[in-house]
């Protein structure tokens, strides 16, 4: 009888294992379907939002890979195109990130021209006949990786390790920094694009501001230029950090006061291992180097 009980137990155990395997497969399929459904819903919401938002000839898109001087450029343009009042709650109130707004279900903003629009979208997502102009801020990819690592560690995973994150950053992926940057530097549709280097925005800011003014056909007075210099400084943006980054009060495991972190360049050479630098250099040579030389040399 004892052996029969063991036999029965084995049958029961194997049955549960088979059920678990079946439910696991079902869960995977449901999860995959759910993700696709959400992706399609988000895409539809964004298309609707864009239709309501519309296009204007004097729209100014600030196009960047994340952590490449987006907010810095938004603040410069905000100061150049308005009276520079800092009483807004968040930069998105005066310079929207429309894809994010559509995902969050926000109302389409009614803004005066010229509108300053943030985007991290890949080049291919823009229609050939789009109105407006683009400012593309180009930052050294290794520095981008380090800055993104710190933000992901602060916002998403406090146990994230730099080496692991950098490995994933330089790994080939259709949506990686290399492919994103290549698309914007190639500019196969000949969009009107002003290319700026992040490092120049740090070290030669007034010169870059005057490039922006000329490209966008702006007519600011000298006081507006002085405001743009003042309020886009690291010290000022750090002081007003709650107007730029994500802010959540009930998340003690997250760090929200490092969105404006250092405002420097060159960290990539310190954080990347020799092997990682070698992989980055190879991919850079294959995808970006020639394009970068054509634009900035």
Secondary structure: elements and pairs:
Blueprint: H1 2-53, E1 60-63, H2 70-81, H3 98-103, E2 116-119, E3 133-138, H4 141-155, H5 162-170, H6 177-186, E4 193-197, H7 198-203, H8 205-215, H9 222-231, H10 234-239, H11 267-271, H12 274-287, H13 289-296
Parallel strand pairs: 1-2, 1-3, 3-4
Helix pairs in contact: 2-9, 4-5
Beta content comes to 5-15%
Number of continuous helical runs: 13
| Alpha-carbon Rg, integer | 24 Å
N-to-C series of helices and strands: HEHHEEHHHEHHHHHHH
Largest sheet: 4 strands, parallel
Overall SS class: alpha/beta
CATH superfamily of the largest domain: P-loop containing nucleotide triphosphate hydrolases
Helicity level: 55-70%
Query: Any guess at the CATH architecture of the largest domain?
Result: 3-Layer(aba) Sandwich
Shape: globular
CATH topology of the largest domain: Rossmann fold
Number of strands: 4
Which whole number gives the mean pLDDT? 86
CATH class of the largest domain: Alpha Beta
Strand order of the largest sheet: 2-1-3-4
Features of the shown structure:
2 domains; 297 residues; alpha/beta; 13 helices; Rossmann fold; four-stranded parallel β-sheet
Detailed description of the structure:
- The protein folds into two domains: 1-53; 55-296, Rossmann fold.
- It is globular and about 90 Å long.
- It starts with a helix and ends with a helix.
- Strands 2-1-3-4 form a four-stranded parallel β-sheet, sandwiched between helices.
- By secondary structure, the chain is of the alpha/beta class.
- The protein is built from 13 helices and four strands.
- Helices cover 55% and strands 6% of the residues.
